[in-house]
Amino acid sequence: MNATTMNFRKELMAVQEDLLRFAYKLTGDSEEAYDLLQETSLKALDNEEKFEPDTNFKGWMYTIMRNIFINNYRKQMRDQTFIDHTENLYHLSRSQESGFESTEAAYDLKELRKAVNDLPKGYRIPFSMHVSGFKYREIADKLNLPLGTVKSRIFFTRRKLQVLLKDFR
Questions:
Q1: Residue 73: predicted pLDDT
Q2: HEC-encoded secondary structure of 40-94
Q3: Does the residue 83 lie in any domain?
Q4: Which among 57, 75, 127, 158 counts the fewest CB atoms within 10 Å?
Q5: Per-block average pLDDT, block size 10, for the chain (169 residues)?
Q6: Contact call for residues 126 and 135 (beta carbons, < 8 A)
């Protein structure tokens, strides 16, 4: 093991506590924070040759962690998104175990999903997260947005949906 590798590993070990705190701030969950720390450390070790000596190692590590967190979040959102490819939108139109039993209610639910999916991404994602149970602060932290921006986007999204879906009340 050469001196550069030794220094890299020493620096990696020295920032572990700071990275864990940052991971917890991003995830809000200690187990997820440990997983994120481990994934970040492995990614750094795999990309050691890309690090420029005599630059900000801690900043480089924070960037890796933040990017992993964002990519994981985006993947999670994609995995939770259901796209109905059937010709007649069978899966979206059929009644679900959510208490919607009539075809009329299923149609209303389909219209609601369409209206939400037609929103601009900057409004759709915070609104969807809020409806999924995330608190305003969690949304702000996860999307790296000011708290006021998150609150106003959710507020304006509600208003827009009320106008778009006024016939479905």
A1: 82
A2: HHHHHHHCHHHCCCCCCHHHHHHHHHHHHHHHHHHHHHHHHCCCCCCCCCHHHHC
A3: no
A4: 75
A5: 86 95 90 93 92 90 92 78 57 49 55 78 85 85 91 88 69
A6: no
